[in-house]
Amino acid sequence: MAKTVGIVGGMGPLATIDLFRKIVESTPATTDQDHLHIIIDNYPQIPPRVEAILERGESPLPKLVESVCLLERAGVDFIVIACNTAHYWFTDLQKAIRVPVYNMVSCAASYIAERSEELSGPVLLLATLATIRTNLYQDAFAACGLGLQLPEPQEQEVLDKAVREIKSGELAQNPYLAEIRLMLDKHATEGTVAVLAGCTEVPLLFPYLGNTLKRFDATAILAEKVVKEATAE
Amino acid sequence: MAKTVGIVGGMGPLATIDLFRKIVESTPATTDQDHLHIIIDNYPQIPPRVEAILERGESPLPKLVESVCLLERAGVDFIVIACNTAHYWFTDLQKAIRVPVYNMVSCAASYIAERSEELSGPVLLLATLATIRTNLYQDAFAACGLGLQLPEPQEQEVLDKAVREIKSGELAQNPYLAEIRLMLDKHATEGTVAVLAGCTEVPLLFPYLGNTLKRFDATAILAEKVVKEATAE
Known about the structure:
The structure is a homodimer. Helix content of chain A is about 45%, strand content about 10%.
């Protein structure tokens, strides 16, 4: 019998919908009953992760713990967290419960490491400044023996602004689309071969970027992992 | 403080994602924290509602009760059910818990009744045969003093097949799109002024129908109700 999946979500809600949809679309199913039992705690009241890390704002940890405990009590077999930056508190969250939490950041790094022979150049990380400052992806890539390229400081500023706009619902009309397109084109001419969406808001912009760089999407990689783990014997 | 919303989902998962997305998009929000706390039990193992009604298949009631009880224990303030046909068991579900369950079928009927002066002709119900056989919408419309048009038997067959295809993921490529388009065009020439999606799968086809009939969508109406009730003082 398939396992029950728990998702800590709401960071933001559109990114949670994206993960939910990617899990449903990755599930081999022809009827409702073939799909996975998924319990989602869409809890946007979890304090902002970026501000907690960069500006010593209120810690999201107590509400994150509340959420994983709610999911564990509800009977899920494992948990995933639909926010890359929140993985800064990963160890504390895993300690708070008995069911396993699968780590999106290390899943994405291993996934790319398994395909590194196909890559003829560096991968550019598209994440929040907070995720970059905490070295989440740099450490996970180093553990897999992979290098990772980071945006220039002014490019990073644009990305962080774009993420805030996504959180207020701006996708096709996101005011930073043109600047991100230019930035990706510039990196492509300099030898970058792929981008990694290491922020769950970033893949929401992928349909509007029209660039030919290979795209890795931590959300989609996590969705595949969820389906694999939930349906494993 | 906003109320916490519970959603009984998985019937099917794409329809649950649609309701979730419509709630998020109807919420006035510029940051994550402005959004609603929503707990979703996406439980596709609930036995098929249509087969239970039409073919005396396994009753979905025990698992539906399980789901509303799970949400109540998790602390939601009210519950909605992301499946019209499942509303056949509405009274039993409401009896099983103390928190209120808002009824999508009566919400949709009241919403249309409030706008009935704008309608110069009948509304056509697009729902499963099971929903039609149980008179859920006919009774709700009669209670509001509204008439409701039903598809011809052969049209209804097409609709039920289309819904099964949606449940296996067929949207833009749904093999029944052309027949549904023809059916709507025929009803429009005969005086129908609007359609009501009274099955949570049906609005998933709306982007591909290209017809000019006014569209009422029970899922979207429920999403508005959810936001209103959750943010009421």
